[in-house]
Design goal:
single chain, about 190 residues, mainly alpha
Amino acid sequence: MSNDIADEQQAEQPAPMPLDRVALAAALARLFSEEIGPAIDERMSAPVERLIEAYEKSGQPGVVARIGDRVAGKYTVNVTHPKYTVEDGKALDDYAATHEGLEVILRRNPTWEKALLKHVAQTDSGEIVDTRTGEVVPGLKYVPGGRPNGQITFTWADGGAGRKALMQAWQRGELNDLLDELPMLMPAPTASS
C-alpha cells in the first residue's frame, strides 16, 4: 500500500522546467536582487545604529517588532564577551620559551611554491619538471582545465538592455508563471481585483 502512495506522488510530480525557463527565472531573481536587494538591505539594517545607541545610553538590549498585539520578531544587541588577548607578542614568546610553550613549524614558502608552479611543465613521459633547471619535481600532478568548476557567470545582454527588457516583462505580468513559488514577488492584488 505504501508503494501505491509513493507511485502516485511520483506520478504527480510536474515535468522539470526547461533549462531556458530556469535561466529566465534565475535572471529575474538576479534582477530582483540587484533592483530590490539594496533597498531591502537598507531597511533590514535600519534599527542597528539606533539600537546600539540606545544600548550604550540606557542599556536597552533589544527592541520587539510588533504587528498590533502580535510579536513578529526581536532585534537584540549582540555584545562581546570578556576575554584575554595578546598585547605584546615578544614578551609572551619570552615567557613561553621558559614554560614549554614554543614550537617550530616548517612549511614551504608560499611565494616559492607559486613561482615554482609557474615554471613547471609535464614531459612526454608524464614527469613534471622545473623548466628552469630541467629537474624532476616530485609531489606535483597536472590537472587539465576546461571542466566545469561548479560556478557559472551571468552577464546582462546588450550592456543592460536585457535587464531593462526583463524588468518591463515582469511589470507587464508576462513572467508571473515563474513566480508561482514566490508570491511575495507578484504584484499585490488591487481593490478592483
